[in-house]
Amino acid sequence: MLLTSEKRNKKNEDRMGKLPDAVLLKIMSFLNTKQAVQTCVLSKRWKSLWQSLPNLDFNFDTFPFQQEIDDEDEERVEMKMASFSNFISQVLFRRCPTDLVKVCVQSHIYDPRCFLVDGLICYAVKHNVQQLTVHPRSDYPYLFPESFWTCQSLTALELKANDVTLSAIELPKLLACPALKSLHLSGFSPVGPNFENTVFSGCPNLETLELFDILAVGSEGLCIDALKLTSLVLSFALIGDGKVEIYAPQLTTFKYSGIAPTMWRTDSLANLDDVYFDIKTPRFKHNERDYVLCLINILNKFRHAKSLTLSTAAVKVLTKFPSLVDRNRLRFTNLKHLKIKFDKWPCKWLEMPACMLNCFLNSSTILKICMDSPMAVFESPEDSD
């Protein structure tokens, strides 16, 4: 049966095009910026809509090109980099001067001085960006524009260096972003003449702090002083003889991975709920006994935790000297859950001296012990040094 004219028009009706601009822009924000710009060919209604996008997402690896390019073909990669750079410049030039909500950029190693990243960051700061993710991927330590470190609008910031063996993010003496609530840094070194250990004190509203692949802690140490901080993640790639200080009375979640620092200072962390420790054994061990004692002292700093997770690596470090664990009891008086997290490849068994297990059992009236691997078996070897 033939469709009437009215029914045909209804079937061909552009229902999506009738949505308000705010709704369409929200939908377009789930696309990368290249795809969002391509919507301009749909109709006159869409021609300039992308120019008001609140979110910008530029990723070199996903940037469309005529064909796949081998990273070793430097000439073709440079051509793609030029195309990528020109596209970003055109977007920023044609975009309406409205405030930005979120900006993501992943540049490439063939932008060695990161001029492209510099320009985009300055534009984002000028337009009151709230969330910013930057992955410069350069072989050189990247120096951010000075205005960036005092951005008043930033609420969430994620910075990731290319490779901890090649480069690091260089922080200013003071990170002064009063609105910042979430900060994620990956690959930076808190050492050197320009580093101040109180660099995060200029962020009074910081609630979540994640520091991954910290290269080292120098003689000045690393101080985290944040009154509103509730979640803290520390992951060390390398560590010297420095100290780590934590002053966060509202802290509820703490995760640590790496070699334990020689000194650790904290205030009363009475609100702790979840604590996770993945302690590695140093490659060059000077005094294993002192290292185990250092780990015990660090764990006692987090004795208010209700839930404690230890990696198998951390358990193996503690069980090197069971008598030290026995003499220096771990006092987790609020502990309700103890979890042993196994490595990626399941272990057939895990040896844990009875004195170590008892120190947790004696600290709490009700304790649930969980293991990730069903193959784990606890054994109680003779306590000996």
TrEMBL record:
PROSITE patterns: FBOX. Signal peptide: none annotated. Residues 13-63 form the F-box domain. Pfam families: F-box (PF00646). This is F-box/LRR-repeat protein At3g26922 isoform X1. It comes from Theobroma cacao. The gene is LOC18587437.
